[in-house]
Design brief:
The protein has eight helices and eight strands; from the N terminus they run αββααβαβββββαααα. It has helices at about 1-10, 45-50, 60-75, 90-100, 170-175, 180-185, 190-195, 205-215; strands spanning about 15-20, 35-40, 80, 105, 110-115, 120-130, 160, 165.
């Protein structure tokens, strides 16, 4: 089943990013036996989104994700949850850490993957009523612990990543300036400064798509 699911996701540029058997403290709705997490790695998803009818409407990524994941999940009889459903919102970051020992928290507040760095994004969770055997990888610990300079915290031109939290307003304002066009068109400089998984960095059109959505508060 897992091989078929991975093939179905890959046809849309998506990836299976782990799974787990939920426990009461995981806050998974219903009573599923297995939760599988779906996401994108790098820019594999972007050409598929650009070729889809949803690209011209509001919140294109959310609408495209909902349709495509539901199509892939239907043959499995799986229910679908999405990180943009809510409020209240589902704890996808906590689920990812449960699902795959290669995810951990980063200083930027994003999850970091030991292989993909900051470029693996969670898009959906599939809930199955039966157990699924998944390989469990041994956790190696956060790559941030051994990062000497932590360039992610010193690269932002407006110092948006501070001990008291992420300064959203300062970041958005910077994107509207001439000096902010590198971030606007190429993606967040702090995120790009991370040395882990740089080969998976978003391509510029994909990065610009997300930055435009962030600037106006959409997706």
């Amino acid at each position: 089943m897992i091989a078929e699911l991975e093939a179905g996701l890959a046809a849309h540029g998506l990836s299976l990013l782990g799974g787990f058997a939920p426990e009461p403290g995981d806050a998974v709705p219903g009573d599923p036996a297995t939760v599988l997490l779906v996401g994108n790695v790098g820019s594999a998803v972007y050409p598929h989104l650009q070729a889809a009818p949803e690209r011209n409407g509001p919140q294109p990524l959310d609408r495209w994700t909902r349709r495509v994941v539901a199509e892939v999940a239907a043959p499995l009889g799986a229910a679908c949850l999405f990180p943009f459903d809510g409020p209240p919102f589902h704890p996808f970051q906590r689920w990812a850490i449960r699902a795959d020992g290669r995810f951990s928290a980063s200083p930027l507040g994003l999850l970091i993957h030991e292989r993909y760095g900051l470029w693996a994004a969670l898009r959906a969770a599939l809930l199955l009523d039966r157990p699924v055997a998944l390989p469990r990888l041994e956790a190696t610990g956060s790559p941030c612990r051994s990062c000497a300079g932590r360039p992610c915290l010193t690269t932002c031109p407006v110092g948006a990543f501070r001990p008291d939290g992420y300064q959203v307003a300062a970041c958005r304002a910077h994107l509207g300036t001439l000096s902010g066009q590198d971030c606007m068109m190429g993606g967040c400089l702090a995120r790009r400064a991370c040395p882990v998984g740089r080969e998976h960095t978003y391509e510029r059109p994909h990065a610009a798509f997300h930055m435009r959505a962030f600037r106006v508060g959409g997706r």
